Task: structure prediction
Amino acid sequence: MLFKRKDSKLWWARFTTPNGKRLRVSTGTENRKQAQEFADQLKAKTWNVQKLGEKPERGWQEAVLRWLDETSHKATQKDDIGHLRWLDPYLGSLMLHSITRDILDDLVVRRKQEGVSNATVNRMLAVVRAILRRAALDWDWLDKVPKFKLLPEPKRRVRWLTHEEAARLITELPDHLAEMVRFTLATGLRQANVTQLEWAQVDLERQFAWIHADQAKARKPISVPLNSGVMSVLTRQIGRHPTRVFTYEGKPVRQVNTKAWRNALKRAGITGFRWHDLRHTWASWHVQNGTPLNALQELGAWESADMVRRYGHLGQNHLAHYAENLCQPD
Result:
């Protein structure tokens, strides 16, 4: 039986399966004839599954729910959910086997028409690919995954500050932000790890701090050695709050991208710079001072060596003597 819901222009199908289960499902179309064909095919497939033992067809929404449950540990799941919400009107009523490259190419065009970057489109496609691959390889819900390419992304330059620029910025910042910048430039910790840092995570006697696994992007604990500059910053914070390290007017700092931050950048003459670029600055300074890339990877808790190699060009002093080989005597 076909029917329409009050909140939708699409036709829905309603029928009872051979084992007595009542089903209601969207046909995904406003055309009654196409809706009837869809309903008839679905009823036939349901009969084949229950009576002949054929593999049941699985829908996109069912796959999404299982994938979200299995990846609930991901630090970036909030971003994934945003992409999935955008995808739902287009894929929500589809069976997994009917998601083809043509459909995905059409989604790319639609997303690009909204003015988003290639990187945003690629993150969306990466979520689709991850779900389809798991459906095929882990759950045995899908025979094959459609092949599609990601869009080209321009290589971004690593944005970092010189020591002089950093000093100029710190001078322009209010005290609480200046202290957090000093701390970040010395530890390379991400914004949330700094704002949410608690005294229970700091050992002043042994001069190290730690980030718990559930606070880290890679979901692995991070050990943070504290140099003399960091120790000075932490010493100045003692007694300001019973649990949090960084505060403003007695309350934990929750946001750093504030008007005060933006105005300080402007006064310091620094453009195109985000708070996260403080981490890039920390890494760049390390490489320039001779820190090996494998040590930097461990300090920065990067999972992939590729994430660290983007700083490699900043510290090529070990190649200098090879360059001298081409020098001709006077």
Notes: The chain has a mean pLDDT of 88. DSSP finds 14 helices and eight strands in the chain.
